[in-house]
Every structure is written in structure tokens, then in C-alpha cells.
Amino acid sequence: MSEVISYEKIGDIAVLAANNPPVNALGLAVRQGLVDGIERAEKEGARAVLIYGEGRTFFAGADIREFGKPPVGPFLPDVCSRIESSPLIVVSALHGTALGGGLEIALASHYRIAVPKARMGLPEVLIGVMPGAGGTQRLPRLIGIDKSLDVITSGRQVGAKEALKLGILDKIVDGEPREIGLAYAQELIDANAPRRPVSEMPAPAPVDFDALYDAVLKKGRGLLAPAVAVRGIQACCELPFDEGMKRERELFAQLMNTDQRQGLIHAFFAERAVGKLPELEGVAPRALNAIGVIGGGTMGAGIATSALLSGLKITLIEMSPKAAEAAKGRIAGNLQGALKRGKISPETFEELTEKALTLATDYAALKDADLVIEAVFEEMSVKKDVFTKLDAICKPGAVLASNTSYLDINEIAAVTSRPADVIGLHFFSPAHVMKLLEIVVADKTAADVVATGFALGGKMGKVSVRAGVCDGFIGNRILSTYRTCADYMILDGASPYQIDKALEEFGFAMGPYAVADLAGLDIGWAVRKRKRAEGMNPQARDFTYADKLCEDGHFGQKTGMGYYDYSAGPKSRVPNPEVMPLIEADRAAQGITPRVFTDEEIVRRYMAAMVNEAAKVVGEGIAKRPLDVDVTLLYGYGFPRYRGGPLKWADMQGLPALLDDITSWAEADGYFWAPAPLLEQLVAEGRSFDDLNRD
Ligand code: COA
């Protein structure tokens, strides 16, 4: 008998238990084991079959690692058919997460029972495919079009209680899946309950599926899978079951061949790989009981909010009692949001603001802290002053972290007597919302301090990426380059509005100029002033239109005017009429004759600039692997997930053609477009960025 599906006969019930850790994914051996188990149950005269999972979950889906490889039978749809067509009563007992193919196995069973904490869903669209083993054919028969449309096109997980209400489950019982499943199967045998194949239930009457398809496609901003899944539900309503199954398989195969599927699966595995670093193997993190935050501005308050929400106790230091009260107000405001969305109860709100949060003005309050995050003004002298004080007060072994977004952590660490304890923890604003955390490792940072950074990120529900020290680390350094590329395209003839539109069509949630308006144009202005003061490379092009916009008091959304005019509300986004004349004056002053850019060229240049800088970041070891860059851009910069990240995108485009473009643009601007040595090397060796991920 199969090792991953064990067989046992208890009275009239054949018990098939999955044992394929960690998540009982439905790989080949599991599929074969299920078919063998059903056959044996029939041969041995069982009256019912119980299917359940050992360990943490029922089947969590198809084995994603098999995707893209030549398929080997028995295929999952056939396994489901075999289960459903068995003359015995088949019961699935669910716990953990019954996802994708897992839920499809349950839908092919005749009865479904779950523990109260079980969650289920059809998340295939989130990895660029759709249910392919009857999910789109059985679910609408069971729960109707509207509800299955929601479950299938969102890919969301449904809790047991909701699933019972929806009609996915027959019963919820607390206990072990094996015990509740056995009791339910016996109950069904005793009641002489009939087999109940979902495929034999009537399908819902068809609706206007073209309109549904268009609406879902639009909502997905370029994501194909949910819209294609609508066609599967359509097949359920318009075709006999067997033909619907065939149609579902065709649609599934279409999606399997898309770049979007590759991109989304890359993202799935990349976000799980970011925390797996050889330097952390076997290294235990330090304690994380008492956390200090210095500075209660937007950033500090956001970090404190996020930490409080993850159950950590926080001591927040501000300069005066008044500033401390203001910080508390900001944190309470953030937590109000969580309260309104039902994420916390009024009691928890009270507990977090009144008990878990301590405010202080004296650094002495940090003497017992395990980890302190500084989030004060972004200025080296201010940071050095804070770290000198922390060095004097904090207990030995405390981790001292800076939330700087570009300053040199080595220089900050050097003012302390314990540089091994110093690290960068770069949160993204608003810190209680944004999932990305860059863990910036300085020259002398100890391995267990890095591990502590990852442990904190994990506790706070962040996606943590290791970065090395340089101006802007991984994300902001790459951002600065592709933003510059966009600014140059404006000088040469594109408009901010065309650029935003082209990149939004590419899949970014917002174009770079809409983002700049949201973040505040004063940020970029300060950076340009700093860079000019430090002395810019004479070969770098410069421009003034953006400064003039700021000089006129237009800082973006917060002043009601930036690249766009927001007088009719933050979403109105009407181009600000002052912008184009400023740009035209700048072009004229620099003797530039504007030319026409196609949307395609805008995307190509913007992406090439991003990839080229990313290749430098990887080549210099600032990011350890290409996937670290991909995850950074996905979680911190609104990069479209279905494109996998910039370096996965580059691989799929083909690196030689990309390098050719960069080299040709370098003829006009050799400084900006200097090709990354790593990109040249990969092209010369005929390798891809993903090859480096696998090394
Ligand atoms: N196929 C292959 N491997 C899978 C998998 C799948 N369907 N689902 C999870 N895994 C692997 C993960 O890569 C991870 O491997 P690692 O330990 O080597 O990194 C391990 O199982 C644990 O997964 P992880 O996500 O870290 O655990 P979790 O408890 O946070 O979440 C799930 C568990 C099942 C909710 C989550 O992994 C998930 O959503 N999986 C995808 C489910 C899915 O899309 N199924 C439909 C496929 S058609």
C-alpha cells in the first residue's frame, strides 16, 4: 500500500489517511494512493470510505512543484471522478486548509464534514490557473452561480462556519478529523444514506457570462485567470457535466501556458524563500519580549501599531509629553482602523492602547528592552545622537535597529561600542499596512541579530528581505533609478500622464507620478537638493520642473495639487495645468526637441532601467539573490504580482534582447544606461536570473 495514503478498515468503513507533509499536496503518489485505496475498499466490501489528512491539514492543493512539468497520470480530475463514481458512500473530513485540488477531492466526495477551524477555498487563480479537477463544474451545482463566482474568482479562503452556510459543508463538529469523520460515516451507514454525487445535481440556469467575464477581467487589472475561470462556470451551466469537465480542462491548460502562471508561481515560492538564508541556518534569534520605538511620527507610530497588533509590548519614546500624547493619538487612530474593520475587539483596542503601550520621554525607560527601533528624523547626526544614547542605556545583547531608508548603517553602528548588535529594519509607510520589511545587514552585524530581525518580521506578519548597505538598500535604490528613467523620458517628450497610463496598463496599481503625489513631492525635492549639495556626477542629467512645482507649494495630494489636481477629491486625478508649461520650459532651456514615445517604449525603458539597476544590486551582493529583489518590488513598490517581479519578468522577456536595448540607449546616455556587469555575464553565459536563484 502507498506510503502517503494509508489504508485501514474499521468495521464497514475504509479509512484513507493522507500522510504527505508538510501540506498533503496532491502529488503523483498521493493521487495514485487515493485511487488504489478506493479500489481496495470496494474489493474488501466496505460500505463507506473516509478520506482525511494526517498532520496539519487536509490536502492543501495540487503539488505546485509539478506545474510546468510533463503531467503523469492518474490525473486529478480522473481521481475525483473515481472517488465520486464509487458505489460506496465517500466522506471527506476536513481540517487545516482544504485548498484547490484538496477542496475538489472533497467536492467529489458524497458528504463533507469539517472541524470548526478548517478553512477551504479554490485559490488557483492566485497562482495564475483555475480549478482544473471539477471545481468550476461541481461548486456551482452545489452553491449556485453567485457564491461560486465569488469563491472561485477571488481565490479567498472560506472559514468552516461560512462554508456550512454556503452549502459547501454538510456538518461541523469539533474534534480530530479522523474521529469526527468515522462517526459521521457510521451515522450515514446506519441511516442508509444514499450516495450523493454532485455531478448528478442540476446545474444553475445560465446568465450573461460575457458581461461577467468583462467585469471580472476589468477588476483583475490585467490578471487573466479569474476571468477565464468565469468561462469554466459558464460551461457548468451550459454543457452536460462530462463536456463541462473537458471544457474546464482546456481552459486550465490555456492558463497553465501563460507567463502570468509562471510569474505568480515564482512569486509564491520566492516569498517563501526570502527568509531561507544559509547564514541563518541553526542560528537562534534573541529574545523579543520588550520592544522600544523611538519617535512617534507617522513611521514610528505605524511600526508601534504593527508591533502592538502582533501582540508585542511597546515602549515609545518621544521628546516631550505633548509629542508623546500626539504619538499615542496617531497609534490610537491606526488601531481605530483595525477596530472598524473588525480586526480587533473594543476590549483589545483598550488593552493595546492602555496596557501594551507605554509612553516615555526618558531613554531610561528602554533599559530592559530586547530590541529598539529608531524612527527619528532622517538625518545622520540625529541618528548618531540616538544611537550614542542607546549604547549608554540599553542592556547588553539588546538589538539596536535603525529604520533609516537610505543612510549608512555602518556609520551609525560605529558610534556605538557594540556594532555587532546594530541592524537596519526598514519598514514601509504606512508601516502597519505595508508588508515589506528590509532587514539591512551591516558589516559587523551578528548572525543572531539578523535572525532576530527575521523573527520580528515573522511575528509582525511582514515579508522580510535581507539587504546589504548602500544608498537606498534594495528597493529605494532601484526605485531611484527607474524614477530617474521616467523623469528623463519626460524631458525627452513623454508626459507624466502618458507614463502613468502606460505603467498602469502594464499592471502597476498606480503610475510613478500618481505615487509621487501620494507620497508627497517634497520627499523627492529633498533628495534632489541633497544630491546636488553632495555634488552630482557631471554626466548625470538634471531637471528643474519638479522643483518649480514644489516651489509653487504643490506637494501632491496633501496640498490638493501636484502632477494632478485633486480639488475634486483624491481619486479625481485631473492633470494639473501648470505642469506641462513647466516641463516645456525646462526642455527649451536645455535645448531638447521633444519626441513622441509609444506606450510600449515607455514600459520597455522603465522596466529595463529597473532590471539593470536590480542586476547591479544583485551583482554587488546588496541582494543575495534575484528573488530577493522580486519580492521587494512586489511587496513594497506595487509591482504587478502576475509578472513575478522585475527579474522574473526580465527572464521571461529574454535577457539578450534587453541587454541589446540597454546597450543601444547607452550610445546616447552612457552614464545612465551603463549595462550591469551581471546582466552582461548572464547573457554571455546563456543563463537567467532564475538560474542564480537555484544556485
Ligand atoms: N504544492 C507544493 N508545495 C506546497 C504547496 C503546494 N500546493 N503548498 C504549500 N507548499 C509548501 C510550501 O512551499 C512550503 O514549503 P517549504 O517549507 O519548503 O518552504 C510548505 O509547503 C509550507 O507552506 P507554507 O505556505 O510555508 O505554510 P503555511 O502554513 O503558511 O500555509 C498553505 C499553508 C497551504 C495555506 C499555503 O502554503 C498555501 O496557500 N499553499 C498553496 C495552496 C494552493 O494554492 N493550492 C492550490 C494549488 S492548485
UniProtKB/TrEMBL annotation:
InterPro entries: 3-OHacyl-CoA_DH_NAD-bd (IPR006176), 3HC_DH_C (IPR006108), 6-PGluconate_DH-like_C_sf (IPR008927), ClpP/crotonase-like_dom_sf (IPR029045), Enoyl-CoA_hyd/isom_CS (IPR018376), Enoyl-CoA_hydra/iso (IPR001753), NAD(P)-bd_dom_sf (IPR036291)
Residue stretches in coiled coil: none
Pathway: Lipid metabolism; fatty acid beta-oxidation
Localization annotation: Peroxisome
Listed Pfam families: 3HCDH, 3HCDH_N, ECH_1
Gene Ontology MF term list: (3S)-3-hydroxyacyl-CoA dehydrogenase (NAD+) activity; enoyl-CoA hydratase activity; isomerase activity; NAD+ binding
GO annotation (BP), single: fatty acid beta-oxidation
Keywords for this protein: Fatty acid metabolism, Isomerase, Lipid degradation, Lipid metabolism, Lyase, Multifunctional enzyme, NAD, Oxidoreductase, Peroxisome
Name of protein: Enoyl-CoA hydratase
UniProt similarity note: Belongs to the enoyl-CoA hydratase/isomerase family. In the N-terminal section; belongs to the enoyl-CoA hydratase/isomerase family.
Residues in 3-hydroxyacyl-CoA dehydrogenase NAD binding domain copies: 291-467
